[in-house]
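A reminder from the course coordinator: this example appears on the midterm review sheet, so study it carefully.

Given structure:
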């Protein structure tokens, strides 16, 4: 829990500096780049977590990997984290920055999990409905989960619509088990 709060504090501080420099959108793109790199490379994650690798080595490696792909502000942020021995929380901080950025911009995140990829028409209908509910801009995150069998699960803030076949089967099973009549012999 301390990690989450610490990540949120660092992310909030970075967002405030980025807003001052009118670079909040660029830093958000940088955070996406960092998250992508860290999520795709087990070796990079291991290096960032390793107490054996010295801070200056971590800084050089991060500069070599991300230096040309992120802004100067983001690189200074990575260097600060490394010097403060907080680099192991970079993934959490990047995710926390993205959340804080969405709040700042008034953008809600819509998560749609479906058994199969959505068609363009389905995606547009869901976004339109979510915009109507949220009264704000929507950013969509799509996931595929074949265990749903069919249908979808849509989540926006604390609201969730579960229109999956798996959920309907579960509801039927529950209904049958509650209404099961066994005659006495």
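Designed residues:
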């Amino acid at each position: 829990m301390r990690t989450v709060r610490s990540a949120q504090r660092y992310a909030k501080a970075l967002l405030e500096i980025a807003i001052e420099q009118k670079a909040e959108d660029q830093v958000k793109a940088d955070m996406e780049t960092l998250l992508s790199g860290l999520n795709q490379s087990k070796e990079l994650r291991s290096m960032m977590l390793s107490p054996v690798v010295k801070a200056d080595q971590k800084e050089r490696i991060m500069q070599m990997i991300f230096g040309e792909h992120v802004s100067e502000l983001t690189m200074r942020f990575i260097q600060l984290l490394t010097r403060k021995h907080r680099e192991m929380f970079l993934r959490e901080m990047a995710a926390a920055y993205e959340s804080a950025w969405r709040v700042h911009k008034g953008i809600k995140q819509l998560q749609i999990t479906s058994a199969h990829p959505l068609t363009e028409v389905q995606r547009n209908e869901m976004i339109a409905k979510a915009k109507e509910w949220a009264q704000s801009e929507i950013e969509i995150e799509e996931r595929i989960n074949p265990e749903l069998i069919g249908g979808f699960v849509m989540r926006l803030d604390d609201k969730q619509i579960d229109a999956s076949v798996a959920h309907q089967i579960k509801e039927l099973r529950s209904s049958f088990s509650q209404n099961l009549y066994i005659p006495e012999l």
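The chain has two domains: 2-103, 107-178. The mean pLDDT is 89.
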